[in-house]
Amino acid sequence: METTLREVIKQITFKHLKKFKGQVFGQNLTGVGWVAGTLPKLYEKDGVIELPMADVANGGMVTGAALVGRRPFYIIRYQGYNWLNCIFIVNYACKSKEIWNKPAPMFIRGLSSEGGLGPVSTSSHISIFYKMPGIKIYSPMTKNEYTSTYKKFMKSDDVFYVSEHRKSYENKIEFKNSLKKNLDIILMPISVTRFEAEKAKNYLNKNGYKVGIIHLYELKPFVLKKKWISMIKSSKYGVLMTDNDYVDGIIRTLAHKINEQTNKKVNVLGLKDKSAGYTLKTSNFPPSALEIINKIKKIKAKKRL
Amino acid sequence: MSYKNYRLKIFEKASLCRNFENEVFKRVNEKLINFPVYLSAGQEYVPSSIAQIVKDKKQKPLIFGQHRGHSIYLSFGGNIIELIDELLGKKTGCTRGMGGSLSINSNKINMFGHEGLMGSNACMGVGACFSSAKPTIVFLGDASVEEDYVLASLSWAAKKELPILFVVEDNNYAVLTKKKDRRDWKAKDVAKAFKLESYDIDDQPKKIFSVLKKNLFKKPIFINVNTKRLFWHSGAGVDEEVKGDRLTIEKKFLGKKADKIHRNIKKKIENLWKQRLEK
Ligand SMILES: Cc1ncc(C[n+]2csc(CCOP(=O)(O)OP(=O)(O)O)c2C)c(N)n1
Ligand SMILES: [Mg+2]
To answer: ipTM higher than 0.90?
Structure first.
């Protein structure tokens, strides 16, 4: 049986604890669900540390653990809690290497899920980290991407924010970019929207469109590869980016960077600019395949006029 | 060592801090230093006494200070020239000219810099202590201890029985707001509620010694030490004349020997500043 991303995260965590004497911090870890099955069943003696219900202090305490070289994993079970947890991470851990020459490498696992929890943001919420210096941000949705992110972390002395999505834990496949010259449009999806973007791309390509895709998971630093730039430049309508963070979050920043380097229009679809309720009708979901398809149809129609 | 000699040793440290701060005071007024400076004159007996106790116990703790940190740095043996250079914004400073007065740091004495969010060092100190199992000291102010995340850190340190010492340098002020206008509780009582061994004392070295001699770094301890800030919260000025600061009291008690030490240190520091300014 092929392994899932969930298994890979669990194995990486096990190795980090046992081989590298690392630590894993978080709230309500050692109980129901074991962080959606991504955490091996280990306890404080093995380095899995239950933190109190003190999110602001906890971010600082894990920073302390990082300062003394324990390379902690820090699990934030819903990214809505980033607001409280980010304070000392971005203001201390991320600055410590540059100011005091004391790195504080930590691997933050921020979990997101898809709507349904009302005003507590369950989707991605990494924009608040994004603008700060001294942080690296990744959003791996596949096994290879996750493994590569962890390897990078172990070679680095930076703070890593790893934006996960619960929906990806069952994933077994790897995504491939699909690019050629003179496409109509190129999708650049992030996080869980990559699954829907793939569906949209396949549908559109069967229906007379020429749609390419660039899967994004290395978000900061964000590097546009040369090949991507030339493919985007040769496309008819530029780029459509999708994300499960708010639409005025990091995709606008990334869109601007892409626009600067390609001179092409970059459209964005993310969480809507509204507060979410609990019901299907009132929740705030990331763009679906259908929404992506409709958006591309609209872009094309508008261009024709 | 006789008790008087012990007090002399502490006096020597405190005198170094006081003379240093007096010199910085002058340099700020001369506008040689143009960023915010947090002088610790008047409060130096807190870190000096603790540093002496720690030294006698042959311990080398992790130190998490906050903005008013010159005396902490100097008491625990931080390099003076590097602190002068730091305040002059030189690359040879203890924080490579990036730390100013607020964010000083020293690898040599395990002192971690502060980033300016008051009280954050309690969280970092507790985390570092937990993960390294090394003895740790966190210095706070009487206002910083009010931060919710400081209280949460006290609670966790108690729960995990860490080898940590929390020191509140209680000068009664948050900038210029007095304690009585901010809260109706004593830090010591709150710490005690979290099951920490806790004390509220003044900055007599004898008192500090007596509360730390038994359990320092054997269990978490919280001490609120009442002390006096001689100068402005930030910058070089005087809010009101303070009478009876600890260094003056001790100097009087220790007599001629202390006078001589104080004079010599003053000269030494003036010369060091001159040398670094000429460089
Ligand atoms: C989180 C935060 N809130 C407010 C401030 C502004 N501020 C700087 S110093 C200070 C007073 C601190 O008082 P205390 O902790 O007693 O230390 P002291 O200055 O008396 O040594 C305040 C309110 C800050 N730097 N950080
Ligand atoms: Mg104060």
So the answer is: yes
